[in-house]
Amino acid sequence: MLGRRVGGYEVKSIVGGGRSGTIYLAVNADTGHRAAVRVLIAADTGGAFTEFAREVAVALQLARVPEVSSRTLDDGREVLFAAVDAGAPGSGVTRFPQTTRLERPVRRRRLVLPISALFLSLLLIGLGWWRRQAEPQPVVVSVPALPAAVAVGVPVVVEPEPVVEAPRPPVLVKREPPSVPRMPCEVTASWRTDRLADLAELQERVVGSESLSAQLQPALDQLSVQIRQARDEGDCRKVEAALRPIVTRLVGH
Predict the structure, then answer these.
(1) Alpha carbon of 62 to those of 32, 55, 65, 77, 185: distances in Å?
(2) pTM for the full model?
(3) Is the pLDDT of residue 233 over 60?
(4) Which of 74, 73, 94, 91 is nearest to 82 (CA)?
(5) Contact residues for 95 (Cβ-Cβ < 8 A; gap 6+)
(6) Alpha-carbon distance 234 to 186, whole Å?
């Protein structure tokens, strides 16, 4: 699967092992958008699309579950395909064609414009008259004369104004981000088949170069033994951790 193409995407790395197969990450060389792919097997039903979408959302920590469709690799195999970046090719984003503007006859346009201007003028005049009617009229209030005691300098008792406390700043509560569950890594027959197929494709890239063969062939031989002897989740993760740097070097990020 590594190095294969589906549409404009090239399979670059392994994301993790799902319940029904290995999930790979593909990258569009022209736009940089990413997509998750998995080999479509004979046992897959309509529910496999929904399960694959959930697994991709968990593995890549996406905010939403992506849409899944079936595509064909350059070697003829069918895969489940989910574009994970917004606006990516194949994500379902479409653009509507521009509509043609209809031109109206000249005589009709000359007649409509003066009528529209007259209607707008009448509307503004009516609005101004309504606002003038709605404005409140000034009210004259007579102020009573001050007592004689105030005039001759007799002290007047004034009640103090209540003290208003300034609002306290809000207390910030630090919230821990929700934990994201790790993708399962199960040693199944399909997992072993996929890993050996990945190893064979990496082997093809190494055979043509003496320097790469001398540097990576011992690691590939060791991986072949580990894949065949893997029994539990720990063995599964060790194999994928050992594959990752080799894939990065031969295929790219």
Answers:
(1) 17, 10, 7, 27, 19
(2) 0.51
(3) yes
(4) 91
(5) none
(6) 9
Residues 6+ apart with CB under 8 A from 197: 1
pLDDT for res 104: 42
* DSSP at 31: T
pLDDT of residue 160: 63
∠17-19-21 over CA atoms, to 5°? 55
Max Cα–Cα distance, the chain, nearest Å: 116
Question: Burial, 226: exposed, middle or buried (Cβ in 10 Å; 0-12, 13-18, 19+)?
Answer: middle
Identity of the amino acid at 116: S
DSSP string over 109-136: HHHHHHHHHHHHHHHHHHHHHHHHHHSP
How far apart are the C-alpha atoms of 123 and 119, rounded to whole Å? 6
Q: What is the model's pLDDT at position 249?
A: 83
Closest CA to 80 of 124, 109, 44, 127: 44
SS3 state at 5: strand
Q: What is the pLDDT of residues 69-94, one digit of tens each?
A: 999 999 999 999 999 887 766 555 43
Q: Is 36 exposed, middle or buried (0-12, 13-18, 19+ CB in 10 A)?
A: buried
Give me 77's structure tokens. 């195999």
Cβ-contact 81, 71 below 8 angstroms: yes
Helix (H, G, I), strand (E, B) or coil at 208: coil
What is d(CA 199, CA 219) in angstroms, rounded to the nearest whole number?
11
- Name the DSSP class of 152: T
Q: Are 100 and 106 in contact (CB under 8 A)?
A: no
